[in-house]
Structures are given as C-alpha cells and as structure tokens.
C-alpha cells in the first residue's frame, strides 16, 4: 500500500507543474497590453549645447534624448567605440574637447554630456 502512494505522488506533482506555466502565459500577455508610457517633460525640454558639444550635435536647442542620439550617431559613424570593450568610448579631437579624457565609459559619457547642456 505504501508503494501505491509513492507511485501516485509523482503523477500529481507533474500535473501541478504543467498547470503553472499555462497559467503564466495569459498573465504575460496582459503585461504587454499595458498603456503607452508618456515621456518625462524634463527629458523633452530643449536644452542649448555648449560650444564644444555644438561641434558634434549642432548649435540649436535639442531635448536630452536627441542630444544622446546624435552623440551616439557620431560615435558609430567615426567608429569610436572600443573594439574589445564596447562600453568604452575612445575620444577623437572633437569628442575629447567635450569629455576631457581620451577614453570614458558610456555611463560616464552621459553624465559629462549633461553638464554641457543648459
């Protein structure tokens, strides 16, 4: 009789395991149907770049998001991303005027660029 209980228990746990993933799939579908996020007004406010940064992104006022996009376009166009560690940016003459270093991380770069916006 004890062996019958042991044989029945693996079947009941496997049935419980298969039921859980099926219930998780509809919940994931609901999460993707969330309403669109509205952008933060602080990020969308046009900021004037400094003279050094204007050489890369242009002199007209741009939102922070656009400044970041234009800097990344410049980095990719001139192949300034480090080949071995893609998180590091190797500065050329124009970018070095902004960053004040020969190499910075991409996280440090965004912090430095924000100081060039007013």
TrEMBL record:
Matching Pfam families: SWIB
Protein name: SWIB/MDM2 domain protein
PROSITE patterns, A to Z: SWIB_MDM2 (PS51925)
Alphabetical list of Gene3D superfamilies matching this protein: SWIB/MDM2 domain (1.10.245.10)
Native source species: Tepidimonas sediminis
Biased amino acid composition, Low complexity: 1-42
Database matches in InterPro entries: SWIB_domain, SWIB_MDM2_dom_sf, SWIB_MDM2_domain
Source organism, top-level taxon: Bacteria
Start and end residues of each DM2 domain: 42-118
């Amino acid at each position: 009789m004890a062996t019958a209980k042991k044989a029945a228990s693996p079947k009941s746990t496997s049935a419980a395991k298969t039921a859980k993933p099926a219930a998780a799939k509809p919940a994931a579908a609901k999460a993707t149907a969330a309403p669109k996020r509205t952008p933060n007004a602080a990020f969308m406010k046009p900021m004037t770049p400094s003279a050094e940064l204007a050489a890369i992104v242009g002199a007209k006022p741009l939102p922070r998001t656009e400044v970041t996009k234009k800097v990344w376009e410049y980095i990719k166009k001139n192949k300034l991303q480090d080949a071995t560690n893609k998180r590091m940016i190797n500065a050329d003459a124009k970018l070095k005027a902004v960053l004040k270093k020969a190499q910075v991380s991409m996280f440090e770069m965004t912090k430095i660029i924000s100081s060039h916006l007013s």
